[in-house]
Amino acid sequence: MKRLTGIFFLLLAFGMFSRPDSGESATLTRIRAGYPSPSASMYPLFATKEARLFEKYGLEAEMIYVQGVQLVHVHVAGQLDFAVLSSVVYLQASVEGADLVQVASSIDNQIMKVMVHPSISGPEDLRGKTIAVTRFGSLTDLLVRPVLKKWGLDPQRDVKLLQIGRMPDIATAISQRKVDGGVISFPTSLHAEKMGIKTLLDFADSGFEIPATTVVVSRKYSQSHRDVVLRFLKAYVEGTRRLLTDRELGIRALRKYGGVDDREILASTYDLFTTRYIKKIPKVNPKGVENSLSLIAESNPKAKGRKLEEFMDTSFMDELENTGFIKSVWP
């Protein structure tokens, strides 16, 4: 715990946390919502904040950006109330004993692709070839191994997995034929296509549900602040509706929180995510939790044989549905 708390103060010292706006009403309940990337995967959170819907439900939400898996450490240290992140990321900590459970899910698939050099015509051509991932043990690594097995390729013997680091570096390595393929996520995949790199598998079409965007809280917090969690989810549900029905708000939110200024990229990103990836109603997907645990179990035996109820709490979204709130937002 001392190490995790130290991480929090280190991140604070380097300015990785956003500061709350001054002058906010003292009558609002303050919450801290963390996210690991300024990407379109966080779109529902960005839109909810931009539309000031947290305030509508009595919350003053401080948006806190903490890169990657460090977000989980900060959450476990008690410095966050909510986190929006991939299911695999929080589950890797949860199977080790972290008190984190999923209460909502906005994107039930991974926005990643297995992309290859144009000379590769099909999965059978990957035998004896090199495939790049960001890091061993990362989501890119975890995702590609079962895919290779499904294609009849042993990840240990039939191909060489190479860790490269950044997604853009993977795309460059493929284009220069330093590797034959790699796992690439949006928006780098768009740039890769312009470089002539082709898609061998789109995880969004694979039917293998591994949620990319979930809302996570500690069970302790959810039990002691149930009303706050419900209000957060009410804002989040309404924010999702605003995102899906208000194109200009969505573009504005991604420009503000995603750091993207190019109008063409903003527009194409909005159209892609709102028509293909983001669910209207962010209910927990038990199958997604099950698949994520199975993925983690390939490298961590602690994930085997676990009950789904240990890692998710559907009661919040169920309550919003049973009380008629969801129907009031999506009549």
List keywords for this structure.
331 residues, alpha/beta, D-Maltodextrin-Binding Protein, domain 2, five-stranded mixed beta sheet, 44% helix
Instruction: Please work out how many helical segments DSSP would assign.
Output: 15
Low-confidence stretches: 1-24
Oligomeric nature of the chains: single chain
CATH superfamily of the largest domain: Periplasmic binding protein-like II
Largest sheet: 5 strands, mixed
Which strand-content bin applies to the residues? 15-25%
As a percent range, the share of helical residues equals 40-55%
Outline the secondary-structure elements:
Blueprint: H1 2-13, E1 29-35, H2 43-50, H3 53-56, E2 59-65, H4 70-76, E3 82-85, H5 87-94, E4 101-107, E5 112-116, E6 130-133, H6 139-150, E7 160-163, H7 167-175, E8 181-185, H8 188-194, E9 198-202, E10 213-217, H9 219-224, H10 226-245, H11 247-258, H12 263-277, H13 286-297, H14 315-322, H15 325-329
Helix pairs in contact: 1-4, 2-10, 2-11, 5-13, 7-8, 11-12
Summarize this, please?
Helix content is 44%, strand content 16%. The protein is of the alpha/beta class.
What does this structure look like?
With 331 residues, the chain is an alpha/beta fold. The chain has two domains: 2-108 and 211-329, 3-Layer(aba) Sandwich (D-Maltodextrin-Binding Protein, domain 2), CATH 3.40.190; 112-205, 3-Layer(aba) Sandwich (D-Maltodextrin-Binding Protein, domain 2). Helix content is 44%, strand content 16%. The chain has 15 helices and ten strands. The chain has helices spanning 2-13, 43-50, 53-56, 70-76, 87-94, 139-150, 167-175, 188-194, 219-224, 226-245, 247-258, 263-277, 286-297, 315-322, 325-329; strands spanning 29-35, 59-65, 82-85, 101-107, 112-116, 130-133, 160-163, 181-185, 198-202, 213-217. The strands form two sheets. It has a five-stranded mixed β-sheet with strand order 2-1-3-10-4, sandwiched between helices. Helix 2 packs across helix 10. It is globular, with a radius of gyration of 20 Å. It starts with a helix and ends with a helix. Mean pLDDT is 90; it is low at 1-24.
